[in-house]
Amino acid sequence: MTNSWTDIKNADLVVIMGGNAAEAHPCGFKWVTEAKATRGAKLVVVDPRFTRSAAVADYYAPIRQGTDIAFLNGVMNYLIQNDKIQWDYVKAFTNASFVVKEGFTYQDGLFTGYDEQKRDYNRSTWDYEMGPDGYAVVDETLQNPRCVWNLLKQHVSVYTPELVERITGTPKDKFLKVASMMAECSAPNKTMTSMYALGWTQHSKGSQNIRCMAMIQLMLGNIGVRGGGMNALRGHSNIQGLTDLGLMSNLIPGYLTLPTEREADFNAYMSTRGFKPLRPNQMSYWQNYKKFFVSFQKTMWGPAATAENNFAYDWLPKLDVPAYDVLRAFELMDQGKMNIYFCQGFNPLQAFPNKAKLARALGKLKLLVVMDPLETETARFWENHGIYNEANPASIQTEVIQLPTTCFAEDEGSLVNSGRWLQWHWPGGSPPGEAKTDVFIMSQIHLRLKEMYRKDGGAVPEPIVNLTWNYKDPNEPTAEELAKEMNGSVLTDVLDPNDPTKKVLEAGKQLASFGLLRDDGSTAAGCWIYTGCFTEAGNMMARRDNSDPGDTGAYSKWSFSWPANRRIIYNRASCNLDGQPWDDTRKLIWWDGAKWTGFDVPDIAPTAKPRDVGPFIMNPEGVSRLFTRGMMRDGPFPVHYEPFESPVANLIAPKVRGNPVARVFKDDFAQFADTGSKEFPYAATSYRLTEHFHYWTKTNHVNSVLQPEFFVEISPELAKEKGIANAGWVRVWSKRGSVIAKAYVTKRIRPLMVDGKATHIVGIPIHWGFVGAAKKGFPANVLTPFVGDANIETPEYKAFLVNIEPTTGPVA
Amino acid sequence: MNMELSRRQFLGTAGAGVAGTTLGALGFGGVEEAYASTIKPFRLVNTTEARNTCTYCSVACGIIIYSKGSLAKGEKADITHIEGDTDHPTNRGTLCPKGAALISYVKSEQRLKYPMIRRAGSDKFERVSWNEALDKIAKAMKADRDQNLVQKNKDGVTVNRWTTTGFLAASATTNETAMCTYKVVRSTGMVVFDNQARV
Ligand code: SF4
């Protein structure tokens, strides 16, 4: 989230698209209710199903899954055609005026530089024209036909309301109603918030779904303001934290990136991370990259990371592919190229697509280690459960070690909520049996490896034997010790260059902010964006003062929010060019003539004069981007692409199948249903129910009882066509597998008219498996395709093809 | 923990703000006063309170865990009840059907209690000691790393990349656990490393 749950009360229009907050984030959704009750805010829901959010919406529009970009590009076109743009914001705070290089074009669904063989683009033309002064060329009059604004205008012009209806199945009048409600928020005193979740991310073009709405929010002037923003509701309780801390193939904590093998040495690595400002005076905050990076390396390797060895640059692995994400991991496993796999609180056999492939891959490992508070299907993938998990244990050679861990109620530490608040929690109970913390397990593994490498040597022992491990009890560091390490501290005194008798920083002290980090090795910080969370003043994450001066919804003294305890990021943009709030009733920060001040921590240098420095300080442009240059693999502007399995060909580019640059492994392509397939004629989607949390609550009696049995949802029209009775048994199958479920025939799902043809939708809730307190049932991933988003590899769970027929019940 | 202080502060600040609205009907108003003045003193006599947050979704509702026995005093603590934290700015004491049933997670029959091993070709899990399990894991890792760590690529660039062992990190563990996990995993050169952000 750019904003927070409590900030939603400040919105005038709430758009839920790509999510179902009333069902999936119920207590956060209360803030929508609050906005409706106190401000008269309106709620709009756009979804293939008439969801629980839709049930309390002021306006609902149906949409075929996987066509959000066509819809949202249509909204952009509407805003431009009807001049519903917050012009002062767009001109000053976006790159609308930047001139794009000659040579960049778009045609038939593809941008310049496409290579069909590689399924990739050469993105060299996707950039700004650079002037002789070394800065990007801009045309503030927006007359230049090659400025971003004019290219965008042309790009979205094909998405007319008529075309939107043909692609998305959203009736034209409903589309226009939603577009006009959004358009009202172009007024500086009206804000719209976007609430989305996996309904947008789980597509082969998920990143571009989100980008579309971000562009709309910029055109309406709704980023950085109270009641506005792009609010990813996020899923699991600390998935934000795990991502912040870089537990991904290609990340280093704080959104730094691991080197690739093209960056043979530290200089080469830094040369692409200089982030020189693209316009005069801009902060381009990533210019401090080296400070963050060196401070991270010092956290890892302390005194062994020196200026002489480039702060142990070579001890970090270098990547040969963009990322070893989970899909690639299972592909490698299936090819027999992996030996050991750890699952820490993760049940991939249920959570990733194409269960048959996942089970086959796990069976090729030598060792699977599962660390979890609960039983999972993954740990028992080798066990035979008939139709729910056919397996022959004798033929599976994988050794499985299952380690019991503590759960939230038994451990201490911080989690990051959707609004970036790091909230500390305390344990309430003793762990069951011999369960141990994950910290204990990881420490034990490390200490054993360290000991063996010290004693016996082995391949490159240095990064392991030199890993800093200065904890009071090395067997199990405390949460406080680790939190202090994340925050960072001063390693050696830093003296005032003007007066060497004075210390600017004193060795041993916790750092108060990331502004103090240094690139010479005198500071350490495990995760620079968290610096400030545990300072000399104590544990800021444990703060529980719930006062809210000004009634802004910021709650600045409750816990700690990254970065720098800022509650709304880009908040400089809540003020006009002169630093005064766009809307006096929604003041957040402002320029008082000498400095920035207000209710939130300003997202700009405190004394940066309003007209000098742009509000988007992380970008070298100083402004936000309507055109993303070469930063996304599938284009600087969003394009409508059909899902890989689609009932229809792409109307704007019939030759393009799916997202043209999404990575697809060969065997998986063979397992996709053809476009418009007669064999698999129905468009399916998956989702969860309010009583359930993914596959976890399956082990929990109360929640299992509340929604006990696997079912699929279909419309009365489809039921009639196929002779399916409500609560009757059906078989649903895709090109990858087959499930048996009860049918729930409901008007919540209606067929959509797509380009003149009725398209039926099949809804598949997720929860069931073969272990737990719940009745046995099938997980949705038996059916779903093994392909991810082109930029971040989130699997395409929301749009795929199936067939359905009545059947008899399962033979147990 | 400064929970006592914060509860009073909450009543002092929010109480006034809530009084004038119609929000009582929607779940926020009044609830906290009623709670603080009636139930809490009763519970405090018998149980220990701990402030925590819901483990499920990232709304991260504040909860209070009540237990018999006090961890702070070094006793064994048995959780008897979990409810919404009325001090919490986001949920103000409310919980959804998942949060309201959190104790059913803590006490689930599927909670794992002992390290177990399933041997190659076997059809069952067997108990194993922590030491045996951890030794086995560490030895297997070292053997695999020593054999398969790619030290240099074909152009002679030092890459120190380990791709035959992989790690999927959790989504509900603490930041502190994540920091510890990151250090241990990355120091081995492992790159097949991911979390649940994608699903
Ligand atoms: S109680 Fe419900 S809404 Fe609150 S954090 Fe838990 S799952 Fe999310």
UniProtKB/TrEMBL annotation, chain A:
Residues 684-800 form the Molybdopterin dinucleotide-binding domain. The keyword Transport does not apply. Keywords: 4Fe-4S, Iron, Iron-sulfur, Metal-binding, Oxidoreductase, Periplasm, Selenocysteine, Signal. Its main location: periplasm. Residues 1-381 form the Molybdopterin oxidoreductase domain. It comes from the Bacteria. GO terms for cellular component: periplasmic space. GO terms for biological process: anaerobic respiration. Its cofactor is [4Fe-4S] cluster. GO terms for molecular function: 4 iron, 4 sulfur cluster binding; electron transfer activity; formate dehydrogenase (cytochrome-c-553) activity; formate dehydrogenase (NAD+) activity; molybdenum ion binding; molybdopterin cofactor binding. Pfam families: Molybdopterin (PF00384), Molydop_binding (PF01568). InterPro entries: Asp_de-COase-like_dom_sf, Formate-DH-alph_fdnG, MoPterin_dinucl-bd_dom, Mopterin_OxRdtase. It is found in: Periplasm. Belongs to the prokaryotic molybdopterin-containing oxidoreductase family. NCBIfam families: formate-DH-alph. This is Formate dehydrogenase-N subunit alpha. The gene is fdnG.
From TrEMBL, chain B:
Residues 47-110 form the 4Fe-4S Mo/W bis-MGD-type domain. The keyword Zinc-finger does not apply. PROSITE patterns: 4FE4S_MOW_BIS_MGD, TAT. Coiled coil: none annotated. Its cofactor is [4Fe-4S] cluster; Mo-bis(molybdopterin guanine dinucleotide). It comes from the Bacteria. It holds the Pfam family Molybdopterin. GO terms for cellular component: cell envelope. It is found in: Cell envelope. Keywords: 4Fe-4S, Iron, Iron-sulfur, Metal-binding, Molybdenum, Oxidoreductase. Signal peptide: none annotated. The keyword ATP-binding does not apply. GO terms for biological process: anaerobic respiration. One of its GO terms (molecular function) is electron transfer activity. Belongs to the prokaryotic molybdopterin-containing oxidoreductase family. This is Twin-arginine translocation signal domain-containing protein.
